[in-house]
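Worked Example 4.2. Read the sequence first, then its structure tokens.
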Amino acid sequence: MSASTHRRVLPQAPARRGWCPGLSRPMPTGDGLLARVHPPLGILTLAQAHAVADGARRFGNGHLDLTARANLQIRGVSEATRTPLARLLETAGLGDARSDGGPQRLTLTSPLAGRDTAETFDVPALARAVEAAGLAVAGLPAKTLVVVEGRLGAEVPEGDVRMFPCAAGDVGIAVATEHGLHDLVACTREEAPAAVAALLNAFARTGRRRMRDLSPDEFGAVENAVRLAMQVQVPPPMRESGCGSVFPQGAPFSPLTGVTSLAPGQSMLAVDAPFGRCTAAALDHLVDLAARLGAGEIRLSPARGFVLLPRQDPSAADLTALARTFIIAPDDPRRSVAACTGAPACASGSTPTLVDAALLATIFAPLGLEGRVAHVSGCAKGCARPGPADLTLVGRDGLYGAVIGGAPGDEPAMHLPIEAVMERLGRAKTVGLAAAFAPGNTVTEFGRYERPA
């Protein structure tokens, strides 16, 4: 059944918190409506990518966001343009997958899925099977995420469920808890979709929004449902016995920017959008380059960027042109700083996060080279990076709450204007982040702002 045969564009865009915008349900924000596009498996054909750019230019304000779940957001849509935008992208094969409020895209895979020679099973095929199983689960929360990992060893984005390779070609299934990942079962690749379907159905019956929010009794019910579906009483040991340890580590889940050789005659070009933002014109330029280099598709990265697998390498002139709008250097300091749209484009933000993140990236650069990460969030929702960072700045009433080693929802140590943040961050190179942002009177001219959240 095609997308257009069972969906309609809703007459009003809801504004309740906790849902995920799509094309038929765009979300009101500071610069108009935000429409999210969920490319199947995070892959766009060149024609689809052109359609997204065209839609952003004709029916939005020309700005695009790239999300940490490898989706795209078209900004500045209006009530008058939301319906023609949805029709354009549905025609391109990018329409919403469901109309019941469930996840438009359930799975997240590496941008190299299906092309990584170290993967031990067909990741795209398994992801498609899980997507199909998820469509049949009523009441599944919109933010539910299943990460399908073809190899172990890389830092994998946080999700509710993780599927990963085990010895002998089996697939391990683990779920997120408040204490970390908990392994449930190992099964064959053929059994895995049914196991995940049982898991998701049991999870949906609890009414919880995220897997990690389950009570012990609820978690037990989910675990029992999976075991019953797989007809096993006790889950076999997996990670403890070296599940996946025989497989080599290699390319990360989100590849580094620049040109990388994957195999003889096969290269990868990865670019990131600075702080997850690009323009329709920049996307059009990337599509034209992909066509010229022989790449038939564009893959989205959880690093909020794009990945090409071209038949020929880009020239120095190509890379110079890309660098005007994208990050192509692996040591670019902006890669160490996550940021959301912020004010004025986001109605929930009170600080210009994109401007402040660009300032912070320069001073944070020495810490970024050590592997540290920072996050500039317009509010406590933490859309750009929900999890913890070495330094998280949370906008509130025009100031930033400073959280060291925590997430946007954690209690800040203090609230400061961006100028005071920069001063303290400058000293962090010698005294450390925790000491630099310890409450006190070291920045007395801003002391009046150091108050509890």
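Now turn to a second chain, presented in exactly the same format:
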Amino acid sequence: MELCFAPTYASWASPIEAPLGRLRIFVIAGSDQPNHTVLTQNLWGYLHWRNANVRHPDVLAARR
């Protein structure tokens, strides 16, 4: 394991920020789930949808 210090306000430097940011935007932000069980179901629903609709890396490279 390697410890890497990043600047305080440099979330863009973290590779995990991109998928977690989308998760926050599409599931958590503006939500009003009544309890953690419903929130968990919504999170799993998003993850299942995201995994079912993933694009092949070759397609993404061709778009660039």
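Notes for the reader: The two ends are 33 Å apart (CA to CA). The chain has a mean pLDDT of 80.
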